[in-house]
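Q: What would this complex look like in 3D?
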Amino acid sequence: MSWTLFWLGWSSFVAVGIMTLVWRENPYYRLIEHIIIGAGCAHSLMYGLLAVKTTGLDAIAAGRLQLIIPLFLAILTFGRMTPWGWIARYPTALLTAIGIGILVGGALEGQIVGQIRAIGVEVFTAKDPYTTASTVFAGISTLCAIMYFIYTREHRGVYGGLARYGRIIMMAGLGISWGMEFGWFITALGTWTENVVNFIRALMGIPY
Amino acid sequence: MAGKEKTVWDRLLDVPQWAVAVAVFIFLIIPILRPLGLPVPVGRPAADYITWIQKIPPGSNVLFFQEMSGSGWDEIKGGFTSTLKYLWSKKINVVLVAVYADAVPTTLWGIDYANPSRFGVKYGENYVFLGYIPGEEVMVAALRDSISKAVSVDYLGTPIDKVPLLQKVDSYKDFSAIIVAFSTGTSMDKYVRQWYATHPEIPQLWMTASGNEMSTVSYWVGGMAKGYLSGPTGCAAMEVFIGEPGLAAKITDMKNLASIPTLVLVAIGNIAYWGRRLSGRR
Amino acid sequence: MAVVIRTQIPMYIISIIAFILLVEYFIALEPLAAFRKEMLTWGVIIYNFVTLLGSALMLRYHSLRIMKPPSREPWARYYSIVAIAAFFVFLGIGWGIGLRSTEYVTMYMQTVIPATATLWGLNLIFSTMGVYRAMRISNLEALALLIGGLSYFLKEMPIICAIFPPMTAIGDWFLRYVMGPAGRVAVLTAALISVVVCIRTIIQKERTAVI
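A: Here is my prediction, written as structure tokens for the whole assembly.
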């Protein structure tokens, strides 16, 4: 038996184990589930330790002694597993601070101002009547959808009508989002169903 | 109610799950046994991706963030490998980074599949894999400022001052574009915040699973991403562009029939719902 | 004193460092830029240990389950033995043969990927049941949901695009001019909420980071 056939069979064994969940939770499924838990944990641990070496220890050995401070703080993270769990708040606080510091500026420019600016740019750079009409429609839809999320004003009358239109656009967007997810499910299940079919073909001597 | 006879509408609204599962698997298996091989539709985002990747000058450098693993890997592996093949065919240097530990094996598999030796490119001179660097958004920001400060060795353990390509590239100034294979519906936000917000002149090309497209579309429309490959359909467009349909094109074929049970059930559900509602009024 | 050490000092760390990094974004000064670069390196190192903590907690949980399984589920210890065994097999091959070896990469790709992908893919069946039961055209919103879904669905099917070529253009129109606004509002809302929570954390109105 070749290694190709072995791995084809092993991956099919794993995939079929997961597929049995359609019937109900069962020992076969739980066996595969726990194998994955152990495998994922080992993988994260090994790469985590490697990253500690490459980003921390090697840099300290190369002369960046100030990195001893974050290394010490990082070890405090394990305080969560001890009765003095509060010491883990120090590395968490530093990580939170760095996250906030780098997030706010970028979010303001890229996600807030950038998105609002894009509405205007789209409309004023449209080259033909069809694109202009489409971009105006998109701009109005965006504003109405934003109106829907303003809860400090009652959705009544004209405002209520526009907010409802915004809600309809959001629902259409959610429908598209559903279609997108659906395609992903087909890919995921289809790929490994094909794997199982190919394994059966291999056992029967049919080329695949 | 007990003893009440089921109408045809009630029966149509009561299709059991096992029947749905059997139908789904049958429609998945048919294209596997008999591929249809239809042409892949090229959507606008994929067309923009292909247009912009052609604008990257030969001999320049690209930073490639790879996040994808697990369930999404099958969605983008075609786009990942075909992008690498294209970049190497144009002698564009690539610095690859795994954003998550899970993305390392998939990256290695993808590099191996793309077969760099076929294009005459050498590790260390034309492409480098930095391995997994922890930190997510912090890491993305750190690499923008200085690769040498964020990491000291490449994936093989070679000090970066001994890697020829990394002598030429260190920060955003050295890259003509960044390519991202991101993994979740909000992953792309960090590239917009840390790269686009500070350096909008550096084009970003994305690829992701189709389910993550919701926010991606708004960034593409807004110009933050110049183009993106979404799922196997988008990735198949890239494969066809380079003339080597394979991984993604095969998956696209499955979508032809696998969607039929869903469409049929949606139709049945609505027909039965309205049938029961209208017959109930009479 | 305990409150100061356990809560207030971490909150001040967040406020001061986050504020400096925020100021650096708007004011280009070399010392601030150098401080940011150093903090980013520190963040990478600390983040790494947070991921190691997950592995440590998992090992502890399953080890305890082996030694003392729950009374309602005594066979749970055998599953935990499987998890720990798989952990050591992957550890052995990863550290023994090498993380970048073909053997390890193949083992990972043929074990973890099929499981995670298939688990995700099973949603196809559950989602099909869900839309069968829930996607009813009962009002305008439901009709919009259905039309939006179908526009993308049919665009992704090569057979439909072969029979009806304008489907790609129709699907692209919906993607750009219907999904675009919806996605834009989602991004804007999420970004505004993030910025508000971040600023509230800096001014210490939000204490969830230290709880």
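A: To summarize the key features: Residues 44-256 of chain B form a domain with the Rossmann fold fold (CATH 3.40.50.720). Chain B touches chain A through 55 residues (CB under 8 Å).
Q: Very helpful, thank you.
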